[in-house]
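tool_call: predict_structure(chain=1)
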Amino acid sequence: MNRLRILLLLFLFVGVSLSSSALEPAYVAHVKLGLPFDTALKSIEREFGEPTSKDNQQIIYKDKDYGGFVFNEIAFRFRNSKFNEARFIIRTGNRRQASRKVAELSQWLSKEYSMSKDYDDGAYFYVGGLAPGGIGRLFTIYRRKVDGAWHAVLRYGPF
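tool_result:
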């Protein structure tokens, strides 16, 4: 009987620990995901300054220096008036440079988040952090070709 109680207490402890960590808020930079538009806008402007453009769907920065990188575009996106996605994009000259920037971004973020590396479609990509609901990853770092130009992309969400 004593073993059963200890086992039940152990399961209860693990369950409470896992559920409390899943409820921890997730952040992009220092901006909490899920914030209402007006609150998120204040936090974003406090950290990144005045945006290049903004409306109730997204807040855009162009050619912004952040974390030691120059991002050609940073987009904070909203769904149902809540902050749910961000994309940090670096335009590069070719596929090799895009892959190099992806690796550099992963090294930068690995200082703060646990990450994993995978290989798909001829390139490595990285995933890391824990999504707001506690299931899945907070961000993905990958390369892509858009309108003939190669990009390194750090994408949070959508959540």
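agent: The beta strands are 27-28, 31-32, 53-54, 58-66, 69-79, 82-92, 115-120, 123-128, 139-146, 149-156. Proceeding to next step.
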